[in-house]
Amino acid sequence: MTKKLKWQIAANIFIALATVIGLLMMFFLRYGMLLAEGFANFRYFTVLSNVFGGAMAVVWLISAALGAKGKAARIIAVLKFMAAVCLGLTFVTVMIFLAPLYGYLKMLVSANFFFHLTVPLTAMAEFVLLNEHKIYIKNCVVSMLPMLLYGMTYLIYNLIMGRSEDPYQYDWYGFLLWGWPVGIGIFAGICAVTFFVASLLRLLNNKVQKRSGTSSDKESK
What we know:
The chain is an all-alpha fold. The protein is 73% helix and 0% strand. It has helices at residues 3-28, 45-66, 70-102, 104-107, 111-130, 137-142, 145-161, 180-212.
């Protein structure tokens, strides 16, 4: 077992455990910036992206134990890249937009210490430093699918439900408080940020691979 593989195993075990701890705290230790209770928190992209990242860490660990190679290993690598991008979007949104508004300490306590900081940073670092599969521009585009599906579901749900006395009942992010043109504009901006995160992670990983001279994919595109 190589040193890099040991680090990958350790990182993915940590991601999986940190996700579980965050979920347990979300359900049983209501404290901090959790705006809903229990399962209601699963409407937030933050929670969904962390569950995706934790699930992919478990999938990777199982595939590594089974010795997955070739196409199967590559598919898992791309899915882990997608999870890292989703978590990267969560991290950027919190650090650049939410934390300045509500305070960094409030955004990094209880379950959100894991959801906003620990899991996203570990997942991104694990991909950048340890991934040995070639990631292409087309993978950056594909990595936007979870966010696109979430955003479209969010908008369609609000279109069906309409407005209520509590403006945040259905529009829990408040993207549509200023009207649909602004809400769609925010959605477009999030798309751009997602692609930027994906491209940056890909660029950094490519540099690491070139420096170390390691890549498990022989084809070049």
